[in-house]
Amino acid sequence: MVQSLNRFKETPSQTAGPYVHIGLTPNFAEIGGVYDADLGTRMVNDKTKGERITIRGHVFDGTGTPLKDALIEIWQADADGLYNSPSELRGTADPNFTGWGRCPTDMQTGEFRFETVKPGRVPFKDGRLMAPHVTFWIVARGINIGLHTRMYFGDEEKANAEDPILARIEHRGRVPTLIAERDSDTYNFDIHLQGEKETVFFDI
Amino acid sequence: MTEGVTLPNRRPETGAFFQRDRSWHPPAFTPQYKTSVLRSPQKALLSLDNTISEITGPVFGHNILGELDDDLIHNFARPGESAIGQRIIVYGRVMDERGKGVPGALVEIWQANAGGRYRHKKEGYLAPLDPNFGGCGRVITDEEGNYTFRTIKPGPYPWPNGVNDWRPAHIHLSIFGHGFAQRLITQMYFEGDPLIWKCPIVSTIPDRRAIEQLIAPLDMEATIPMDARAYKFDIVLRGRRSTLFENRLEGN
Q1: What share of chain B is helix, strand, coil (3-state, %, to 5)?
Q2: What is the pLDDT of residues B90-146, one digit of tens each?
Q3: Considering only CB atoms, which chain B residues are within 8 Å of A99?
Q4: Is B167 one of the catalytic residues?
Q5: Pseudo-torsion of CA A188, A153, A167, B53, nearest 10°?
Q6: Disulfide: which of A60, A61, B29, B185 matches B40 by Cβ 3.0-4.6 Å?
Q7: Rounded to two decimals, what is the model's pTM?
Q8: How many CB atoms lie within 10 A of CB A196?
Q9: What residues contact residue B100 under an 8 Å CB cut-off, 6+ apart?
């Protein structure tokens, strides 16, 4: 016998279910008076540095129907490419930018929407710069474990072409599933859980 | 967001997280849980070691917490009243796979009331709402990773999956560690509930030992006499390697 590694197993995931809003966005669920405001609804304030943008889209199931009960969280660097996290050791992120947002899809239309800033570039492990991107995490009824993906920006063609993560996608026809097209100040990013246009999801 | 955070006075860890054991977690496609059929990706996930985008993550300060956020018996109740049901304490420790406590972890919970009714407009179960019960709570773990809630034990709940499927009594939990790669949502079940082994959502988890990790034991030692019973629920998040810089190119 050898010594034990003394490792625990990660707590297994379970679906967030249809009533995820009660816990994570109670004011959206019309449970008033418990929390002042829902966490993650406001990423920027008047002093936030960088280019203001809107990210919007829908999450579609395998029949092309938008999910009206999904919850999306995003995590991104500030305009200078710094994360507002204790694990960020390269500098201090913009104190007027949280970097983190949470938005339920609309119960009627299925749309999600984030008011944020365009992130700066951050380095890959070997020091090369990754293209600007926003990390997405999607949970909902029917999703047993949260889905990670990334949104890249359609007007960053050169940076996208040299991004080490996008370069790892073997089937090049799937790369556009991660790229949001720009329309004025808005980036449209639709997520397809399944089928022909299936978004690339990460085990990260 | 990091303003007001009180983490132990040590250098933050910046290593990549251990790879998820996806044979321990439920797979995406689990047809006995019908909604998963059209909501599961069919193509393989793209596996990558963490970058700084996943190693970092939001950390929340105690300044977001209200006085009753951890007390679901009272945080929605009218003054002087309390929620109806079995009064319980749910407590435990958030640690990582190395057994290290995770301080400053935000734990958010939600649940049905004692009759299995959720306070949600999309919910039509005929069991009544409790006017003194909202069903949400949150805490931030202390320096050792400990957390405690006070709540009422939720009731089982029928749902339209099979003709006669009932969820076991359960509390939903959402946990933030220190990196976005640790993000986790799960459900806690109660020791001895016979519905656990009949539930199509529980059985999305392939390994019985993994299911047992979601079952909170009754803890009579932590029970408060003449007040509330206690259930212990420890949560394990992904562990991590020691440093971000292990793969640096020579000369960096």
Answers
A1: 10, 25, 65
A2: 999 999 999 999 999 999 999 999 999 999 999 889 999 999 999 999 999 999 999
A3: 1, 58
A4: yes
A5: -100
A6: B29
A7: 0.95
A8: 7
A9: B145, B239
